[in-house]
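**Fold in tokens:**
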Amino acid sequence: MSKTITFNELRRIKDSLPDGSSHRIADKLNVTVQTVRNYFGGVNYQFGKNCAMHIEPGPDGGLVVLDDTTIYDMALEILAEQNKEK
């Protein structure tokens, strides 16, 4: 199922993740860490893949349509775990 979010909100989620989260997600999904970074707005396709996201110009950094929310959902789970520990 796809999800629409602003680019800045996607970056806020990425920036809120604890250290090592990109590696944790990559290991669990059997993808490269760079692929996870690309999902959150990185553009290094030499070492990672495009994660089916589309960016449209607009307010708050533009709109991002995530065709696959797996990485997004895992990031939210990690943030929820982090909040429970506090």
User: Anything to note?
Assistant: The CA atoms of residues 80 and 86 lie 10 Å apart. The longest strand covers residues 3-6. DSSP finds four helices and three strands in the chain.
